[in-house]
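Q: Sequence in, structure out?
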Amino acid sequence: MRSHRPYVVWLLGAGGLATVVGVVWAFAAIEAAGRSVASGPMMTLPVNVYTQYTQRSIVPDYTGLWLALGVAGIGVLVLLAGAVVAFVRPRPA
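A: Exactly. Output:
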């Protein structure tokens, strides 16, 4: 029996794709954040030079990780919505 709801396939496909892209992006963001901190010692300025920038430690930027987790979360929600719509039977009129 063929479904008369082709948008279910689109929901499942888009949700699955967004979830996979988000997870891969999250792994790449974690790796990039770790690499940015472990890239080497902080450069110091010569003597008698304004030294404000050498007083701070380098902190990784996790913005990409949070965006990736958001994309993966939205993908999971769309995937769940597609699964729910796929298994719900239409009501007879």
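The radius of gyration is 23 Å.
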